[in-house]
């Protein structure tokens, strides 16, 4: 059994979205092991409604080229220095997991599949956190761009729901406090 350094509660409460990584690559076997564990997310009818396009090794260089085109469409007008600076939010991540979900034509199934895949992403984020790896679920507009989809090999009837950046980091972001539970809870009373 693997050494679990954080309790579930600690992992949930201490996890932060990491937006500034330090450039250290995430090892492929570590990422695969995290993803494999994350597959235990609940999902209706065991549809396992997900697949992943992953980059964390030398393939990252090709991915940066693609990201550059879509994130900075006017990159050719930038100086090399500015381009490098603006690409840092992409190039400092140690790995990428694009989470791809089928778009079921039936609304109930489609919502269930998105919910299940979201639970899987949470699993990935918590499991990564437990290994000192930060992550951020990102949804840049270009995820739905047909040309970007093509560059990632996304098929008709599939959707990229998350560009999950993972990686090591030097600075722990401050917690973003949540409202207190009382603000969200209504004790049930029967409405006549
Ligand atoms: C569905 C979803 C989409 C998100 N998209 C983005 C995004 O596009 N860019 C970003 O910086 N963070 C994104 N986030 C991360 C949130 O900004 C982050 O979870 C929130 O600020 C709370 O911070 P915490 O996760 O550290 O508690 C997204 C999170 C979720 C769940």
UniProtKB/TrEMBL annotation:
Return the similarity comment: Belongs to the nitroreductase family.
Required co-factors:
FMN
Protein name per Swiss-Prot or TrEMBL: Putative NAD(P)H nitroreductase
Lineage of the native species?
A: Bacteria, Bacillati, Bacillota, Bacilli, Bacillales
Q: Does the keyword NADP apply?
A: yes
Alphabetically sorted, this entry's keywords are: Flavoprotein, FMN, NAD, NADP, Oxidoreductase
The residues covered by the Nitroreductase domain are: 12-168
Q: Any keyword NADP? A: yes
Q: What is the source species? A: Psychrobacillus mangrovi
What's the EC number here?
A: 1.-.-.-
């Amino acid at each position: 059994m693997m050494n679990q350094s954080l309790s579930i509660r600690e992992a949930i409460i201490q996890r932060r979205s990491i937006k500034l990584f330090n450039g250290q690559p995430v090892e492929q076997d570590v990422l695969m092991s995290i993803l494999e564990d994350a597959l235990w997310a609940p999902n209706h009818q065991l549809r396992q409604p997900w697949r992943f396009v992953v980059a964390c090794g030398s393939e990252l260089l090709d991915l940066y080229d693609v990201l550059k085109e879509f994130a900075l469409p006017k990159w050719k007008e930038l100086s090399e220095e500015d381009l490098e600076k603006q690409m840092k939010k992409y190039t400092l991540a140690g790995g990428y997991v694009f989470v791809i979900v089928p778009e079921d034509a039936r609304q109930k199934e489609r919502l269930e599949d998105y919910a299940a895949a979201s639970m899987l992403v949470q699993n990935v984020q918590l499991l990564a956190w437990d290994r000192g790896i930060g992550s951020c679920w990102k949804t840049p507009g270009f995820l739905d761009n047909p040309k970007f989809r093509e560059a990632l090999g996304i098929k008709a009837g599939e959707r990229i729901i998350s560009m999950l950046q993972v990686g090591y980091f030097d600075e722990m972001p401050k917690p973003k406090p949540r409202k207190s539970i009382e603000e969200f809870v209504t004790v049930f009373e029967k409405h006549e």
